[in-house]
Specification:
Four copies of one chain form a homotetramer. Chain A has 14 helices and 19 strands. Chain A has helices spanning about 35-40, 50-55, 85, 90-95, 105-115, 190-195, 220-235, 250-265, 275-285, 300-315, 330-335, 360-375, 395-405, 415-425; strands spanning about 5-10, 20-25, 25-30, 75-80, 100-105, 125-130, 135-140, 145-150, 160-165, 165-170, 200-210, 240-245, 265-270, 295, 320, 350-355, 380, 405-410, 445-449. Chains A, B, C, D: Its cofactor is Zn(2+).
């Protein structure tokens, strides 16, 4: 059976991930992501109303025109988790393919919301839920799709595995090797090892290189949680305002914030559109068990009403958990910093960034401005209470050891980052150009012919 | 009563801390430290045989000649904890003063060992043990010395407080605000707050500026411990060599390493002169309860014999905990990296640095070389599993809030670092040149006259 | 005669420089600057319409309320050169003082333009021109004001010297020791040395610490000119668009750009409001001899008309010299990058930044965005073709050697930068707190009483 | 005719460059370099006595065992210039090949000296001199070797071009596009353009990626010369010691130092083994016209005798130009810093580093120590008076434009640096894996078969 990989997007950047695997006549697409920074650098762009080709020209979504070179039928579109760089182009591209979107329940729900907010295209693909640990038949020639549970900075993340007669294709993007996650099960290394030992073995492993240059092991979410606990508990006696911010989609982190708020005698409340969206969805789907009275507000009016209530009842009784960890100009924390909300910051009030600045000058500039504006009002900054969601070097070594793949394709970054992974894989006996493939957006790699 | 502060050393560098406080006719000296880097930059210097004046000229020990300008009798020499930059000049300077050395038991023991290894001077000052929480009368005019328990990267650390009729002088160097230390009691903030509320209040607070430029709060040792646990537990299935290194004097960290080694089925063993010295001392004084069969070896012969045993019985059964976290040329880990010990590293073996590189090009160069040599043998590096022992900004704010000092003297670094503390203290209402003193080595500050 | 220095602004930041010197009953004010970044961080602020007190609260202009503590009459307001951080607050503060504004001709012209654009206050102080090398009597007690020629990144810069019976006060901000400037005379070191040798000598030297942490010597403008020449000459054969940007007020640099444009067969044209303002002023005052047909356009309409003409006549015949070297959102180069002007960039077109990014995350973010947008259109970036306008360490040593001042007051930055100067001055025998003064905004230093 | 490229060394590092080109049966080897840092990291290694295989295992010299896979006869070994990373392995590897070493006169002389100091192998290959602009026939099938003049940080550097019936192979390592070099002719861009326009064109271009991540254009040596002139002229009035250091092999820089020393009334003198070696060789071969009485001393005794003479006759009359710009532990400047020479440094003496620190922690640590030791004696540091010898991005674009190569192979660095070049080449229409080759040490690339 012919096996071919189309490396469509995310091989020259972080952002617009998209890869297709053809096994015989059956094609499965993994991820359809959006590179948001390519959009935001232009003023006044509204992606909801834009046409795909314009977004492709901007480098914002994958250029999937290479799909016409891939002879076969798309049987499934498989986003691996709910981050925008993995699902953000579905509303622009999925309608071109007559195939269902298959994902875990939380991811499906986020895809559904995105499709609903799309204003240019009508996306009508079936949405099919499949849990980690489950499998689905693809086509009629013995190909199976399996979801293996992984741990990442969003819940319900999986690595899809396409089992073919020629061996398994493991699409390994976006995970951390977490044995003590705060929500959900640990990464299913046992299953990866089994797949590695199966008769046909692993034909190809596609890997996320984001942290391939970082030594050691990415710490567990439990380590971030202890750091966060230490930080918030140390504020127990403070009788002024405390505000926290983190990635809205990072439900485990939000949960820790909610719990520690309660532990130090404050009522947590989630504020900002994304905060409401992700946490609300997670709660509705029973991924997290928030206190029944936990407030979540997304619309500006209800947010401002909540801030007024907080000011009336006393800031010392609340812990607002808000959007804005990167200093995004329109996010809630930035509005607070600019004095545009009813919440008044006083000297000594504490702002906790449970996030790291994504290292890019635009973010760094915006975050700097947000912190400076907060500082002008006397606020104190606690930053970097975070762990990455991506494998460091030792996780990569462990995955190679578990899967023993015949081919490796580094992905999810530019060539400079891929280069660091290539060094690492060569240490394990792979050779560039032989079984280790440095590729670009828009290429086809024929593995079996 | 006249109160005067002599800022003798450590006000222009980290290293040779020494401060004297005169209350009427009675003088107490806090710390007599060594700036080791000023020694090491010269080849082949043996401090044990050197004269004080030469070491003063090198900038290695405090220039205490200003003490002759201080009219009064030295009643006590009080090192605050056992790090070299606080006790390392005692063997060179203490004999000039007819006064006992007063310190906590662990510190006293380290001072004693240092005096014994000195080869130039005979130091015969009395060594007096005093525990945190205890007090001692100084002279005959109502001055009392108190030790307040603090948490730092070495056990049995205190902040000495000199109670005078004019108010308390709090010598606040070298602490972290740790409510969940791994060994010993949490920092005694309750006592600091009491002292701040006393009638005379705090006349002067001398503070350590090392991290005054770092936002937020220094995490508890418990956070480092969870990070370390996560790291070592992740290696449980590895059947090759694992080696760890950390600050030898950091008994809490060594204890965590020893425990986690046991948890993952490996026998810990401490190797290197300093490892034996500090951990042996801590165990003899009952500060830590190591397994009875924990091996500690300092002399090269016994270390090499242990390495041979490890190689014979199987590296997979041991966790050597060694010196060399900064890549020091003669430390144990560097010797291992150079292949100068019987311990053979193999591809995939793991080296855990539970320490941060002290940010200075010399260290960075040496650590880089050590890591590169380790890497040439296939070793994998896990680094930065550590938390600082010094207060970040929020700890400084909290101390000012607790003590409400009338005067503040930033210390323990060069003026650039002091400047960061001065900014911080000015935010709290202090004013440079009024009640906030930017000083240098060799100055006298008259607080009450 | 009593001598007192009021350190009003610019002792905790770069930006709102202002210092007053009282000699007996006569007071002279040096500089009244604006800290533009404190304004720009807020959205939609129009300084022209704002009240002084609001600008003081924002930290944008000096808080001159301390002037009421200074017993004496202001006899002159003396801006040292035309940069905004030295003259930008004149329109907000000068009207409070019944004294003329005394400056060199180019500076006076820029002050006049600023006063004319002010919309809140009517400033009616006399504007008095005085050239480098000239002196003026201040009051009736033997005080003289002298202007000594210095070299900086703007023309007609001086260091004012106030000669008093107690010695000279040298206000030494903003200069480079340039013996081969491109416009104007070399720095007048001979005169500084003479002043240092005079009977009364130098009572006090106020110095600019911006580069006190940088080793060596700031290169001459001639070095930047050769670097720029090498860059532009290397483009001689290119037949597409070349665009250059630099500090608008840096007339010497603009002159070099204009000359080299001609050398490589291109017609230079200055575009952007500030370009027109500074170069037009310099030309009218005969500081620079531009080609008679050199176009300078500031208003958007005339700029766009010029761009259209360039596009019609062929980009290869022109070198637009534009504003926007820091990526400022509304500057000309940023508009070009966003495709908002008629000038079309093509792949291979060259953009020359004859400027360094002012190291602050806001600038770095904006400049990054501008370069990225330029790159999306295929433009190639040449950056860092520049030399600083401020003294490095060796220039500071040389000034101390020439002036032999009795007192030194570091200025023009925050305490961290002052600290670097203090280290340097202590190497020369000064002592902090004795004859070397670390001060803050809003202090009085009594030198003679 | 079959054309094949063997990428033997320097494709994963900077250091042990070696590439072979097979055209039919004829093979030409370009460069045989040494990676000195792989040697120096080990204590007490003497390369002169070591066997090739041990040096290959250390990663110090190219692993040329792949040459046995290349079917053909080596007709020439062609080092492109005299730097160690291009000629340093000749004494270890050349004797295995029955072929002459062909190079420019200065390079040949340095090769000869190296062979003479070798103690393990007897290298007896013919040494053939060929000047830039000349050609030589290789084998009997119409292959010609041409040397094109280029500009680099050493004199007499060329890029060899192998003209084959299938097109030219341009081996483009180590050059800067300098139109105003201080010694020798400008880079021969005219000839490169001609080669690009020839009938067969350029089959393959092998390019040096060192600076592929740096924007703009590498400045001409003339710019460094003006910077250096500005620096030294500013010291004209200083009547104490001035010392300069630079790359010993950088004859143009040494020449500038010698000239400017004379201009400011000081006698230059070259000190240190490498200083004597390179400058002596350049002078003997008439590449540079030094003053007839210019002293050059390499042996420690004669150096120390010279230092004594300088101290006797007055430091103010001399400018020692010494080795040690990277703080190498045994170089002359480091010895001076340690007080191990008769030259005594005084407070205010000036040390000029006409070199940049090669950015690697080992160098940075050693240089830091050297500067610190110099500073302890009062010396003042002038650093970074230098320009790179390698092409920045715009030079790369210009070369691609001139040569229009059918294939491009980035070289002379690790994959991360190669990646930056790959991005650049893709901007020009090349595609990775098609006509743009990311390769590793030990690969064969078949271009024509």
């Amino acid at each position: 059976m012919e096996i071919e990989i189309a490396t469509i997007g995310g091989y020259e950047e972080v952002g617009r991930q998209m890869t297709a695997v053809r096994a015989g006549n059956d094609v499965v697409i993994f991820d359809m992501g959006l590179n948001l920074s390519q959009v935001l650098i232009h003023d006044n762009v509204e992606t909801e109303r834009m046409h795909s080709l314009d977004l492709i020209d901007m480098g914002a979504i994958p250029d999937d025109r290479i799909m016409s070179d891939l002879e076969g039928d798309v049987q499934a579109i498989v986003p691996t988790h709910g981050h925008l760089d993995h699902i953000g182009a579905i509303s622009k591209l999925a309608h071109r393919y007559d195939a269902p979107i298959v994902a875990t329940p939380f991811t499906i729900e986020l895809v559904k919301q995105q499709i609903e907010s799309e204003q240019k295209f009508g996306v009508e693909n079936d949405l099919v839920k499949m849990d980690a640990g489950e499998t689905m038949t693809i086509g009629d020639h013995g190909v199976e799709l399996e979801f293996v549970n992984v741990t990442h900075s969003i819940i319900d993340a999986i690595n899809p595995v396409l089992h073919t007669p020629e061996g398994a294709i493991v699409y390994g993007l976006d995970k951390r090797m977490d044995h003590t996650p705060v929500i959900g099960d640990p990464i299913d290394m046992e299953r990866f090892r089994e797949i590695g030992r199966e008769d046909e073995g692993v034909l190809c492993y596609i890997e996320d290189c984001t942290n391939a240059g970082r030594k050691g092991r990415t710490p567990s979410e439990k380590v971030a949680r202890e750091h966060l606990r230490d930080t918030l508990y140390s504020m127990e006696d403070y009788d002024g305002g405390i505000v926290a911010t983190t990635f809205s989609s990072h439900i485990a982190r939000v949960k820790s914030l909610v719990e520690f708020a309660d532990d130090i005698g404050r009522q947590p409340v989630l504020l900002g559109r994304s905060m409401e969206k992700y946490s609300g969805t997670a709660e509705r789907l029973d991924f997290v068990d928030f206190p029944t009275d936990l407030g979540m507000f997304g619309h500006r009016k209800s947010v401002d009403r909540t801030f007024k209530r907080i000011m009336n009842e006393g800031k010392e009784n609340f812990l607002p958990i808000v959007t804005g960890h990167q200093g995004e100009p329109r996010a809630m924390l930035t509005r607070m910093a600019r004095g545009e909300t009813p919440y008044e910051l006083n000297a000594g009030d504490k702002v906790v960034f449970s996030a790291r600045v994504i290292p890019e000058p635009t973010n760094e500039g915006q975050r700097y401005q947000a912190e400076k504006l907060l500082g002008m009002q006397g606020a104190r900054i606690y930053d970097d209470i975070h762990v990455s969601g991506h494998l460091n070097q030792e996780g990569h070594y462990e995955m190679l050891d578990a899967l023993q793949p015949q081919n490796v394709i580094p992905a999810h970054n530019d060539l400079e980052h891929l280069a660091r992974y290539i060094d690492l894989a060569e240490n394990q006996g792979y050779a560039l150009g032989r079984d280790l493939h440095a590729t670009r957006n828009g290429n086809l790699i024929q593995l079996v012919d």
